[in-house]
Specification:
heterodimer; A: mainly alpha; B: alpha+beta; 3-stranded mixed β-sheet; two-stranded antiparallel ribbon; 8 helices
């Protein structure tokens, strides 16, 4: 089995300049958001108090970071070690994803300087309380799970620049300890990470159930927590495929299609189970008829279902799974499906009352793009200097 | 206007989940939670309101809220605001019933629910249901996440969209300014038409029923807020020809919205048994698979 190594390629490429452009434009808009209020940047209003930053940056962000716990589940817990090469990139992207979610939450809090209040003021009745705690704990778990890559790269090779050099010994001693401790406790973190993910992935689905008179019946269901969890599990392997495909393309690496094509066999199973539960719930509640009432709700519903159903059927076919482009498109479809599903629950399916409408402003888009760009930037930085991706011969 | 199809299914779903919760905790979810002493509230009799907006002005005075300019963009001219905002906690609006064509003035404000969705939703517990009946907000805790605004079925809590450090604002039932000093709410005191009655909730309910009984021709027999969303401290009466929905008071179910989310949430984390059980089960599967892999001679794992 080959080892993971840092890419050590050229970092400042034109693509990185593009990322920096998005980050800078987000920073410009964030100046207004932080010093002149939400009204100066966003289209949020009294009836649409939560907009794109919550629906995409947080709700979708959490779901799209599900590659971490699903890969952990498949490789570590179900013992499918042949996919081991996919684990480190998945854990890394999950960490970056949750870091961005945390930043996006802070961004969207009107009184962001009180974000630490979640630690000391507890309301166990609040769904958001559970989400906040699980996300905080899971982010910590993911940080720990990324420690082995840092240890492997820098243990006994700590070489800090300039004045920081005097701390070389101290940092190295810390890495030594981390190395020894990790070997013993990793298993608890692996299990803890999966349980925490189960917790908040499902709780995201409970969030909008507090508003029974606002959420459309196509999405308002007591099964929503289970559906959110199942859709997160379904999108996990798709995110792994998506990231691996892009890494292959942008870093000029050899195709990993034999590995990710095989890994993708889980997608139709997970998606199929989700779709069964989704339609089972609609039929059980008698809400299926609403899907055939022409209008924005029904269209949004069918877009969501089509984005899930098409890859579910297509990826059952080996010819599709082991074809780089078709596999990539299938994964994109699942990812878009989850994005549409989250948007349907958090925004499109929410009828927030008469007289008000919401569509994200240029500033909201710019900030969201900035966050995505920052995520890609961090990923490139990490794979360049840490052993994340497998060495290729 | 009755309960339409969409609301019917929602209420049915909520009731179903409520029933599930009832199996686990019969006392908690067996219907609207009506405490014996629900504190104070107000009866807004829309048949008596003359639309003078004295209550609106009194509210602004006691809460020290600025007037809102609505006629030009410099904010120089004052007319009545169109909706609740961070500087308007109560609002008189005229509504016309689509079916009968009859016009009615009605007061809009926080309903001070018995089991408030905003309070259940707030992760830091910044909302408190006071013993007086008022639902108040604590700025020393609030993080400004606005989940309360999503949760409130009446879209009452407001946010200061143009301030760098924004507050959540809404009617406090004059809790700090008057109630705790033994005085009734400012709006009720200011009303010249006796359309707003301040008092204990049970007495207000009796009064409302007495008015309906005395003038069945003038009143719709329903007291809005007695049971809606689990009961509210602010109650409403309307004319027979003007539906409550027309007045911005939709036909909501009788079960408080937090009953569903809290029963799911507490079911999933009951005494931490489910998470611990999943942890143990996954640990077992992991150990089994590691052993099997080792026996097969596979060594490749961390």
């Amino acid at each position: 089995m080959s080892k993971a190594v840092a890419l050590r390629g050229k970092f400042w490429t034109p693509n990185v300049a593009l990322l920096v452009f998005f980050m800078v434009s987000a920073a410009v808009f964030s100046y207004f958001r932080f010093f002149h209020g939400f009204g100066s940047v966003t289209n949020l209003n009294p009836n649409y108090p939560m907009g794109m930053w919550i629906a995409f940056d947080v709700a979708c962000g959490v779901a799209l970071a599900a590659g971490g716990f699903t890969t952990c589940l498949i490789v570590e817990i179900f013992g499918k070690h042949k996919y081991h090469a996919l684990l480190r990139p998945a854990i890394l992207t999950a960490f970056i994803g949750y870091l961005l979610v945390g930043m996006a939450v802070a961004f969207d809090l009107g009184r962001w300087f009180y974000i630490w209040h979640a630690l000391i003021y507890w309301n166990g009745n609040s769904v958001l309380f559970e989400v906040a705690w699980c996300v905080m704990l899971y982010l910590s778990v993911l940080a720990v799970e990324n420690v082995p890559a840092v240890v492997e790269e820098y243990k006994d090779r700590v070489n800090l620049p300039g004045l920081l050099a005097r701390f070389n010994g101290l940092v190295n001693a810390f890495l030594q300890v981390a190395d020894k401790v990790m070997g013993k406790v990793a298993v608890f973190f692996v299990l803890g990470g999966v349980v925490l993910s189960f917790g908040h992935q499902s709780s995201l689905g409970t969030m909008m159930l507090i508003a029974p008179y606002k959420l459309h019946e196509l999405w308002f269901t007591p099964w929503s927590p289970l559906l959110f969890l199942m859709s997160a599990i379904a999108v996990g392997p798709s995110m792994v495929v998506f990231e691996a495909s892009l890494a292959t393309y942008f870093f000029n690496r050899k195709s990993e299609i034999h590995l990710i094509g095989d890994f993708a066999k889980f997608i139709p199973w997970f998606l199929g189970a989700f779709l069964l539960a989704r339609f089972g719930d609609l039929a059980w509640r008698g809400a299926l008829a609403a899907a055939f009432v022409p209008g924005k709700y029904a269209y949004a519903f069918w877009v969501e279902i089509a984005l899930f159903l098409i890859p579910c059927v297509a990826l059952m076919n080996k010819g599709v799974r082991f074809h780089s482009l078709k596999l990539f498109l299938g994964a994109c479809s699942v990812i878009l499906g989850v994005v549409v599903y989250r948007f349907n629950v958090f925004l499109i399916g929410m009828d927030m009352g008469p007289g008000w409408n919401y569509f994200p402003s240029v500033g909201e888009f710019a900030v969201t793009f900035g966050f995505v760009a920052f995520g890609v930037f961090l990923y490139k930085l990490a794979v360049n200097y840490l052993p994340i991706l497998e060495q290729q011969h | 206007m009755g309960i339409n199809r969409r609301n019917f299914f929602k209420v049915a779903a909520v009731t179903g989940a409520g029933a599930c919760a009832a199996l686990a905790a019969p006392a908690e979810a067996s219907g609207p939670k009506l405490p014996e002493d629900a504190g104070y509230g107000m009866l807004n009799d829309s048949t008596r309101c003359i639309g003078c907006k004295a209550c609106q002005t009194a509210c602004k005075q006691v809460n020290e809220l600025p007037a809102e300019g609505t006629l030009d963009d410099r904010g120089a001219l004052y007319d009545s605001p169109r909706a609740l905002s961070d500087s308007t906690y109560t609002l008189i609006k005229m509504h016309r019933d689509e079916e009968s064509g009859e016009a009615t003035f009605v007061k809009q404000q926080c309903m001070h629910c018995l089991d408030p969705a905003c309070k259940s939703a707030c992760l830091v517990g910044a909302f408190v249901k006071e013993p007086t009946g008022a639902v108040t907000w604590d700025g020393k805790k609030c993080m400004g996440c606005r989940y309360c605004m999503v949760a409130c079925p009446y879209n009452v809590p407001q946010f200061e969209w143009h301030k760098a450090i924004p507050d959540i604002s809404k009617c406090t039932l004059c809790h700090d300014t008057r109630l705790t000093k033994g005085k009734p709410t400012a709006c009720a005191t200011a009303c010249p038409a006796d359309a707003i009655t301040f008092g204990r909730r049970d007495e207000l309910l009796r009064l409302a029923r007495a008015r309906i009984a005395a003038h069945p021709d003038k009143y719709d027999p329903h007291v809005y807020g007695e049971n809606e969303v689990g009961g509210t401290n602010v109650l409403y009466l309307t004319k027979p020809k003007v539906s409550f929905a027309t007045l911005g008071l939709p036909a909501f179910g009788y079960i408080a919205p937090p009953r569903l989310t809290e029963s799911i949430q507490h079911g999933v984390f009951k005494y931490f048994i489910p998470p611990v059980a999943i942890y143990a089960a996954l640990g077992g599967i992991m150990a089994f698979n590691q052993r099997r892999n080792k026996l097969k001679g596979g060594t490749e794992h961390e």
